[in-house]
Task: inverse folding
């Protein structure tokens, strides 16, 4: 069974840092691009960042560029989101998502981890 | 960034109704559009990609159409489990963007 399990969320003060992790199982992790999508309370979905398979190239939303860094460890089947200089508007449920294999769409999502900046 | 505008933002419908949701892109995206369903307190569920290709296992009452800037998601006969919020997403270019969502409620 394909599974994504996020961890690392919590309450942090403005300007603080947090590192999210997403542990994958049930599929060949190394060949898929992995992404982070967030959802502020009562709001819609916002793509945050993606890290590709193979070369591990990364791309970010403008709202987090320079503050957030995503990376992956294929040996641990885990993707990370390092969040620095956190702001109140970064408060959201952060989802880890797997792509469809060559398509930048998200065919599997984790349950999410909540980040509150206050 | 490509903006996606969904309409309506919410709708009320009855079981058995045919429901259509529209997603309009701010510029042409070919067929690079996906649809998701999200129920309260749960992560989104992937339904359709490439504008009209149903993910394996998604009921055939769901269908997608469109290309360029105008897209639709249709539920041919609404079922109780379909009451949820639906989002479109473009994957033509980064940044990937989502529509604002359409909440389908029980009439």
Result:
């Amino acid at each position: 069974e394909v599974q994504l399990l996020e961890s690392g969320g919590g309450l942090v003060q403005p300007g603080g840092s947090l590192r999210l992790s997403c542990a994958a199982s049930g599929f060949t992790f190394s060949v898929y691009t992995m992404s982070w999508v967030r959802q502020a309370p009562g709001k819609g979905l916002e793509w945050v960042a993606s890290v590709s398979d193979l070369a591990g190239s990364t791309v970010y939303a403008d709202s987090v560029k320079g503050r957030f860094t995503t990376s992956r460890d294929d040996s641990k089947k885990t993707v990370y989101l390092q969040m620095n200089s956190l702001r109140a508007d970064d408060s959201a449920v952060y989802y880890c998502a797997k792509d469809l294999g060559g398509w930048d769409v998200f065919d599997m999502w984790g349950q999410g981890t909540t980040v509150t900046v206050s | 960034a490509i903006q996606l505008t969904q309409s309506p933002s919410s709708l009320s419908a009855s079981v058995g109704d045919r429901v259509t949701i529209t997603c309009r892109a701010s510029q042409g995206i070919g067929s690079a559009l996906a649809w998701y369903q999200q129920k309260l307190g749960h992560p989104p569920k992937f339904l359709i990609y490439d504008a009209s290709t149903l993910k394996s296992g998604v009921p055939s009452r769901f269908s997608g159409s469109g290309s360029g800037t105008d897209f639709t998601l249709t539920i041919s006969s609404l079922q109780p489990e379909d009451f949820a919020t639906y989002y479109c997403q473009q994957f033509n270019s980064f940044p990937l963007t989502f529509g604002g969502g359409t909440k389908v409620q029980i009439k």
